[in-house]
Amino acid sequence: MxxxxxxxxxxxxxxxxxxxxxxxxxxxxxxxxxxxxKSISHRALMLGAIAEGETVIEGLLLGEDPRSTAECxxxxxxxxxxxxxxxxTVQGIGLGQLQEPLDILNAGNSGTTMRLMLGxxxxxxxxxxxxxxxxxxxxxxxxxxxxxxxEMGAQIWGRNNNSLAPLAVKxxxxxxxxxxxxxxxxxxxxxxxxxxxxxxGKTTVTEPxxxxxxSERMLQAFGATLEIDSKTNSVTINGHPKLTGQTxxxxxxxxxxxxxxxxxxxxxxxELLIENxxxxxxxxxxxxxxxxxxxxxxxxNKRLVTGEPVADLRVxxxxxxxxxxxxxxxxxxxxxxPILAVAALFAxxxxxxxxxxxLRVKESDRLAVMASELTKMGAKITExxxxxxxxxxxxxxxxxVDSYTDHRIAMSLAIAALTAQGKTIINRAEAAAIxxxxxxxxxxQVCGDQx
Length: 451
Ligand code: S3P
Known about the structure:
By secondary structure, the chain is an alpha/beta fold. The chain has helices spanning 38-50, 64-75, 111-122, 143-151, 159-162, 186-196, 214-222, 254-266, 285-292, 337-344, 366-376, 407-417, 439-447, and strands spanning 6-11, 14-19, 29-33, 52-58, 79-80, 87-93, 105-106, 128-132, 155-158, 164-170, 178-180, 202-206, 226-229, 234-238, 247-249, 271-278, 296-305, 308-316, 320-321, 324-325, 347-348, 350-353, 380-384, 387-391, 400-402, 424-427. It has 2 domains: 6-36 and 252-447, Enolpyruvate transferase domain (UDP-n-acetylglucosamine1-carboxyvinyl-transferase, Chain, Alpha-beta prism), CATH 3.65.10; 38-249, UDP-n-acetylglucosamine1-carboxyvinyl-transferase, Chain (Alpha-beta prism), CATH 3.65.10.
């Protein structure tokens, strides 16, 4: 392809992504390497910091969110090597040994950093911590973790009746509880389990549907004792384990793979091999949803890497069909709803996504933003209180759209733009670096855009 179709323009601190696909002949080809899993990267840094001895992390996501986690734990005494190579080492300081930081801890854009970290901070007696984040994070609900932590005896103050950051935490000796979470949230579950590490006895979390279980897997690998009851979606942790540093090999993030799975499915003549993708069953909702839509995806070279299942995914284009995505599958594809909405635009018939009201409190209100930005591109998409209704088959037209500083919105719109006639302008595209700093380079690579 001689003419550049993807052009990234920097304007002060913001980036504008311009995408002008050729009118015919674009197909995506090649082998794609995706960045490390964001959820596993955060957990490896945190558990490494509170374990004894050295943790070696291979394949850590070098995105903005894990950088926020690393900065926070450095400020509390953990020695973490620079996040500039695929191998990062953490010198742990031991359970209960986080130091009182000299300044405010800044979780940036990362809900996982703030919510998981709160469990640890609240359980460190006699230390005071202040935590904040960027404007998106400061508007996201923290009461979902503050309430159960308060039940355990935590002292936490924040704006809006103790529900929004900035937060002040006065560490306490906490007591174990059995928490019945009203939402299936891995961040809530993990926060309580991390707080439970420092209690005398057993702390249990029961959730209405199973959310991602990376914390459970990694806590056990570091030496904690857990009891898991899959019938009731309950997990129990025993307090005061001995945590020992480990080697963690982080698989590729299936949430990042999602962009290529959908792009290759909807662009005729495409075939991509996406290597080294984490296929933990609590994360593979996107594969099941695309299968319901008739996608052509095969899993090759399945293997287990430091406790997490991994495979290479081969995807070929094919005609998708509409379906309903609802119920217990939602927590297992929660971050993939924006890109699944793009897939639905190319499916025969209607796709309905329900039971996904949680999307309204992500990095942006993802239901409202996907509906508004895709409507600008000519899509037939209606916002529901807890989801989206999408009618496929209407060709997209180029438009000027915005990421609302949400990484997954920026990347989903970029994939939609590959199919739209004309030049799409995506404002605030720099958000992609939160979870996928190499996104634009890989987009160029799969489009054969050498310019
Ligand atoms: C995450 C859990 C999910 C997900 C987020 C990462 C985690 O959030 O959306 O991107 O690493 O635990 P919720 O727990 O709020 O559903």
